[in-house]
Amino acid sequence: MLEDKIALVTGAAKGIGRAIALALAADGATVIVNYNGSKERAEQTVEEIKALGAAAAAYQCNVADTKAADTMIKELIGIYGRLDILVNNAGITRDNLIMKMTEEDFDAVISANLKGCFNTIKAVSRQMLKQRSGRIINITSVSGILGNAGQANYAASKAGIIGLTKTMARELASRGITVNAVAPGFVDTDMTRMLSDSIKDAVTAQIPLGHFGKPEDIASMVAYLASEKASYITGQIISVDGGMAI
Questions:
Q1: Does the annotation count 59 as an active-site position?
Q2: Residue 110 DSSP symbol
Q3: Is 245 within 8 Å of 183 (Cβ atoms)?
Q4: Would you give per-residue pLDDT tens digits along the chain (246 residues)?
Q5: Left if phi > 0, otherwise alpha if psi is -120 to 50, otherwise beta: which for 137?
Q6: What are the C-alpha distances in Å from 140 to residues 53, 91, 170, 217, 240?
Q7: Is the distance from CB of 199 to CB of 148 less than 8 angstroms?
Q8: C-alpha 163 chain-centroid distance
Q9: Is the terminal CB of the chain with fewer CB neighbours within 10 Å at N or C?
């Protein structure tokens, strides 16, 4: 389904990003596994992709660094000749109540989550415009839709991604490029496993389906949006959250 397609997934060493990379590879794409600090886990993801019979490579880059993100995209296009799918998944959290949140923690999250997304889209847009085709899929969050106490920086960054997604969809649609976003709810990852049982119980009570999602739930939606089956879908924010944002 994605044979001959070149995909870049940011923050793909673990969790949701890893699941997305594996799903795209399972559909036939060549996948570049971007990571910032998790080299060993990124290389492990690459090996898992190769075990599926697909091609993959790891690439270290802090996407919040504009020059580094631009260099990464240029080098990948130089190697592969094109870039068909961009999944902006890289992100961090620095949670705290706003009265206690430092300027540094606010800036760090906005930079990694929102500016990083801007950087990669800007860098890849010229190539996709030249190709007259492309799929850009941004990972936002239910927190960007509903808000979440203690996550002013994270929720703001993810809400910003929603606005960026809709705007880029309008700017790029005339050249056959679709831009969509997936908004996960609470998903069973390393990050959520660190939550206390009482917090997990409180969150679960807010989910109509009554349980956390799996990384594969997000990955399957991303794979669909990357495929030709979704060629008439753009500018959409699709919640995969067990019903939290109803």
A1: no
A2: I
A3: yes
A4: 899 999 999 999 999 999 999 999 999 999 999 999 989 999 999 999 999 999 999 999 999 999 999 999 999 999 999 999 999 999 999 999 999 999 999 999 999 999 999 999 999 999 999 999 999 999 999 999 999 999 999 999 999 999 999 999 999 999 999 999 999 999 988 777 777 788 888 889 999 999 999 999 999 999 999 999 999 999 999 999 999 999
A5: beta
A6: 30, 10, 18, 14, 10
A7: no
A8: 15
A9: C
Q: Rounded distance, CA 152 to CA 144, Å?
A: 9
| Residue for token pair 């996407």 | 63
Whether the CB-CB separation of 220 and 22 falls below 8 Å is answered with no
DSSP 3-state assignment of 33? strand
Question: For the whole prediction, is pTM greater than 0.90?
Answer: yes
Query: Could you tell me the CA-to-CA distances from 116 to 23, 69, 131, 138 in Å, in that order?
Result: 23, 8, 23, 11
Of 14, 10, 16, the C-alpha closest to 31 is 10
What does the alpha-carbon distance between residue 77 and residue 179 come to, in Å, rounded to a whole number?
A: 20
Catalytic residue among 35, 80, 154, 232: 154
Q: Could you tell me the CA-to-CA distances from 105 to 22, 43, 83, 111, 214 in Å, in that order?
A: 31, 29, 33, 10, 28
